[in-house]
Amino acid sequence: MDILLLIIAILLLLAGFLGCFLPILPGPPLSYLAMLLIHFTRFGDIEFPVFVFLGILTVVVQVLDFLVPAWGTKKYGGTKYGSWGSILGLIIGLFFLPAIGPFGLLTILGGPFAGAYLGEKIAGQDSNAALRAAYGSFIGFLAGTFMKLVCSGIITFYCIKELVN
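User: That's the sequence. What structure does it adopt?
Assistant: Structure tokens below.
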């Protein structure tokens, strides 16, 4: 049973990192769930204060991930169209330019920006306003992604630490 839980936990850690980039998957909560599974095996014994701290961090990052892109878009004069365009740009970009390979960085960074720009153009913004709003949405997306990566990275560190000990 321990081996099965460990395999599921490793898959959840991988999904957690993918979830940092894909808006469909909740990255840090998946990483946190992996840590819980590792704790309940013979391989790990994570202390209660670590669980509490990382649980609070996970919740805070998830909430901020919803607020920061909207704040960035609003601060730079964008609309909800730009925010949604940013999300759709990432998803569409992942299907047309796979994230693995030479175009991976272009997809992860360019898709949200292009989507936000097109969303603002659909909302009726002129080109300069659409570019400015796309920039704000893009910065918000990057900030949210960075926060999720840090959170999932910290959780993964604790998981690996427990498995090595």
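The chain has one domain: 2-164.
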